[in-house]
Amino acid sequence: MQEITSSNNKGFEIGIYTLGDITPDPYTGKSISSQQRLQEILKASVLADEAGLDIIGIGEHHRLDYAVSATAVVLSSIAQITKRIKLTSATTVLSTIDPVRLFEEFATLDLLSNGRAEIIAGRGAFLESFPLFGYDLDDYDELFNENYELFQQLSLNDKLSWQGQYRSPINDVDISPRPIQEKIPMWIGVGGTLESAERAGRLGTGMAMAILGGDPSRFKPLVEAYRSAGIRAGHNMNTLKVGVTGHCYISTTTQQAKDEYYPYYSNYRKYVDHQLGKDLTKISRAEFDQMANPDTALFVGSPQQVVEKILQQYELFGHQRFMAQLDIGGIPYDQVARNIEFLATEIAPRVRRAISQ
User: Which residues are in the Luciferase-like domain (predicted)?
Assistant: First the structure.
């Protein structure tokens, strides 16, 4: 692939994220415990930090088949055993969390991590947090907007009075603790709608796109809408950051990567479809091979194949961050660890070198 020239290429970040799913192993049918899953997440975080990756994201779910519901608690544990890697949620369901509690938790995380805390906010694939915490899904947009506004006010003020529609008023109260960072960075997770992209642009947050398959060029209109909305709202173009997140599996050759990944990926897709109440038909190997071809957004292949896919998307989006989900479908930890090593030692240097020239 031809190397890319760009004036906006400093600090391209590469990292990983996990949702902590506890999917049965496709070979044994057995699932690991939540405790083991959490311990493996901690080990992966240390490895990513020591290998030089830039960021790790931890997802939020409220189900027995996911190990993480208290994202800030897990990130705080990671903060104590890592040194430099950024720590983000992936994603915080902003519509169903008290913004004051969210600010307190991530300000505390920021203090514990010496200024490494971030938030990716969004709705997520599952909706269990709405009934669990007593919210109406029909109020999603209004809740999101109000909670975002309050969170930003909490970031700006040591003491605050505030009143909204969905939360009890705040009357001249201390907002504590104060984080190390002037403002905790917030990104908005976008799955594929122009409305979400435009909202991220209007608010001036980063935009993290979940591109999980298919032709990545279909996301280009979202990036354009995001940047246009941000500029119209008066935000500086340099602050409108775009991230790409996606499923990833790396091995020595592309054929080997496909052979190793197919049982876990098809297992993951069937299991998630079951969770979402969709068709349970297993993906055939031919379908999978098509989904993983060089022009698609599924990051499966040799290090060079994955580098080329990241750079192809960089040509489309000019983004500043790539985060790989390496651990879906019951993949054993040793294979996750090997993928972290590939990502950090073989892929990240090539991508950064290509972008910086």
Answer: 13-317
